[in-house]
Amino acid sequence: MSQHSGAKPVQPAVARANEQVRSRFPFDDTQDLADARRGFLGTASDDVIRDRAGRSVWDLGAYGFLDQDCPDTANPSLWRQSRLCADHGLFQVTKGIYQIRGFDLSNMTLVEGDRGVFVIDPLLCAETAAAGLALYRSHRGQRPVTGVLYTHSHADHFGGVRGVVGEQDLTDGVPVLAPQGFLEHAVSENVYAGTAMGRRAAYMYGAALPKGGSGQIGAGLGLTTSTGAVGLIPPTVDITRTGQAETVDGIRMVFQLTPGTEAPAELNIHFPDHAALCMAENATHNLHNLLTLRGAEVRNPRVWARYLTQAVELFAGASDVVFASHHWPTWGRERLTVFLTQQRDLYAYLHDQTLRMLNQGMTALEIAETIQMPPALSLAWHTHGYYGSVSHNTKAVYQRYLGWFDGNPAHLWEHPPVEAARRYVDFMGGADDVVRRARESFDAGDHRWVAQVLNHVLFAEPDHADARALQADALEQLGYGSENGTWRNLYLTGALELRHGSVGTPTVTASPDVLAALTLDQLFDALAIRIDGPRCWDASITVRWNINGKDPITLALHNGVLTHTSANGPATPHPHLDITLEEADLRDLLLGTSSPTDLQARPGIRITGDPGKLEELLGYLAAPDPDFAIVTP
Question: Per residue in 483-512, pLDDT tens?
Fold first, then answer.
C-alpha cells in the first residue's frame, strides 16, 4: 500500500507493537462483520455526495482501501473497526426499521409508519441526509417524512434535518421531537466555545489528512465528519420524562430520558411493536468519550452506567434487537443484554476505579498509566477505546471530581508553555543538543518521550527546522501505533501542520440555523464572551433595548464586563442610548449581519441618546481565531 506524500516509513518498534496486537485479541471472531453487513439492501450509485455548487461533501468510496490487509502503519484493531464502519448503504434492522450507514459520521434511522417514514437523527449535513433519504426511497418507495426525532444535542444528529424536511412540511404539522433541554445545549455548545472546539475537531477527526494506510483511516465512532450545510429546526415536541409515550404516524415509542450521559440532553427509545431498542449514542461498539478531545463538558460515567442499568431493566426483556446512531445493531435478547451490561460495566469500572485510586493520592497521569481493565471487558471488541480511551477517560473522571490541580504545590503556579519551554531548553543545554538527544530516543523507539521533550524546543524556538521535522516524525509514529482513531488523527494532523502549515477548521457547526436558534439571553451571553476586557476596563456604556412586544433589556459595560438585565428599577443605570426596534433588527445587529449605521437607516427604529456609544461598545468585541496554533505557540 502506497504512502501519502510526506509520510515516513513505520519504525521497527511501532511495527512490532502493531504485530503484537494481532496475538492479543480474537481477530478470528467474525460476529461483528456479520452484524455490520446483515440486512444490506444496496447503496448509492454515485460515490460522491455534492453540495449545490458541485463541491464534494462526502465520498463513499474514499475508504475502499480498508478492504486490503492492514499495513504496518496502522494498528490492526483500529483497522478492523474502521473496516466495519466503512460499509455504506441502506440496511434493514428489523421489519419496518431501516438505517443509512456510512453516509456520514453517524447513522440515520428510518421507521416506517402508517402513511410515511419517521426519521431519527438526520446526520450532520443536509446533503448527506438527502442522499440517504433518496437511497431509502429508491428501495422502499416515495414515502413522505411524517416526523423527525433528534436523540441528542450533538450536531451530527440534527445538522442534516433540512435534507429530509422543509418549511412546508413543518407548516403541514410534521412534528420534530427531542429530549428536554436539547435546543439550549445544541446551540450553546456550537457558539460559546464553538471556535475552539471546531479548530480542535480538525485534529480529532483528521479531516485534512489524506485517507490511506499512512493517513486517516477513521475516527472509531465512524469514519469522519461530512463538510456540507449544517442546519437546525427547533423541536416542536419535548420529551420530558422516562416512560413518556408518543405515537407518530402509528409508530408507538416509549422514551428513557438520559441527561448527562453522552450528551447533556439525550434519550433512548423503545419501539414496543417492533421489539427494538434505540440507544442513541449511549451504547455503541466502542468505549465512548467522557471528555471528548475537541473539548466539551465532562460527562458523568456514574449516571451513564445507571441509565444503562435502567435501560436493561426497562427494555431488554422486550427487545430482539438493539441499535444506535453509530455502528451496527446487535440481534438476540441474550446477546443484546450482554452487550448493554458490558457497556454499563465499562463506564462504572472507569468511574469507580478512578475514584478509588484518586482517594489513595494518585494523580490523573498516574491513574491513567496504572489502571487495567478486567479481561472480560478487554476481550469484548465493543469496549475498545477507538473513540474514547481508558487513558483520557480516567483523566476526565479525575477532572470532574478534583479539577485541573493535582494538589502538588509545585504545579500550582507553573510558568506558561513558552516561558517554561525556554527555561527547560536552556537547562538541557540548548535546542540543538535537545534535538540531538531526541533523535537518539527516536531511534530507540521512545517516540512518546521525543514528542514530550521536543514540544519544549518548539515552544522555545518554533522555527527550529530540525525540531519541527523530528517532532513531526515522532507524532507520525505515535499515530501509526494508536488503536484510538481520534488519537491517530490528532498525532497525524500535528505532523501534517508541522510539515505543511495549518489546516484550519474544515467544518463549522455554528451555522445560520444554529445562530438563529439562540435565545436573546444566549445571544447577549455570546456577545459578553467576545468582550476584550483589558481594552475597556475604564469604559462605562449602557444601552436600553425596547423590543416591541417584550420587556426592555438593559445592556451595560462596566469594569470590562458586559451584563444584561430585563429589570427596570432604581438600580438600573440611566442609559446612554435608548433604542426601540423589532427583535429581528436586534438579532441582525448582534449577529453582525447589520451595522449600527444600517440600524439608524431602518424605518420604524427610534434612537434616543448618543449613537456613538453603540459603535464604541461593538468596537470592544474581539473576533475569535478559527486557525489558532496548536503544535506551536
Answer: 999 999 999 999 999 999 998 877 666 788
Angle at Cα 335 formed by Cα 331 and Cα 340, nearest 5°? 100
Q: Is the pLDDT of residue 464 over 90?
A: yes
- Write out pLDDT tens, residues 425-436: 999 999 999 999
Please, what's the b/e burial string for 520-534 (b: 16 or more CB within 10 A of its CB; e: otherwise)? bebbbbbbbeebeee
User: In angstroms, rounded to a whole number, what is the distance separating the alpha carbons of residues 535 and 276?
Assistant: 57
Is the Cβ–Cβ distance between 55 and 64 less than 8 Å?
no
**pLDDT the model gives residue 1:** 46
Q: Which residues contact 432 (CB under 8 A, 6 or more apart)?
A: 466
Residue 445 to residues 1, 441, 451, 469: CA-CA distances in angstroms? 23, 6, 12, 16
Rounded CA Rg of the chain: 26
CA–CA distance, 532 with 278 (Å, rounded to integer): 45
Coil, strand or helix at 384: coil
From the list 586, 517, 439, 579, the residue with the least C-alpha distance to 190 is 517
Position 504 scores a pLDDT of 81
Distance CA 280, CA 264 (A): 13
What is the Cα–Cα distance from 226 to 132, expressed in whole angstroms? 13
CA-CA distance, 124 to 116, in Å (whole number)?
Answer: 22
- Kindly state the cell numbers that stand for 370: 496504572
Q: List the grid coordinates of 431.
A: 535546542
In the predicted structure, residue 124 carries a pLDDT above the cut 90: yes
Angle between helices 76-85 and 485-500 (to 10 degrees): 100
Helix residue ranges per DSSP H, 108-160:
126-140
Strand partners, 152: 266
Nearest-angstrom CA–CA distance, 589 and 600: 11
Separation of alpha carbons 300 and 393, rounded Å:
11
Residues whose CB falls within 8 Å of the CB of residue 269, separated by 6 or more in sequence, listed in order:
120, 149, 151, 253, 254, 255, 256, 277, 278, 280
Q: 4: pLDDT confidence band, cut at 50, 70 and 90?
A: low
pLDDT, average across residues 355-367: 97
Percent of the chain clearing pLDDT 90 (strictly above): 89
| 49/212 Cα distance (integer angstroms) | 20
Query: What is the residue whose three cell numbers read 462483520?
Result: 33
Higher pLDDT, 110 or 572: 110
Determine the straight-line distance between the first and last CA of the chain, rounded to whole angstroms: 35
pTM above 0.85, yes or no: yes
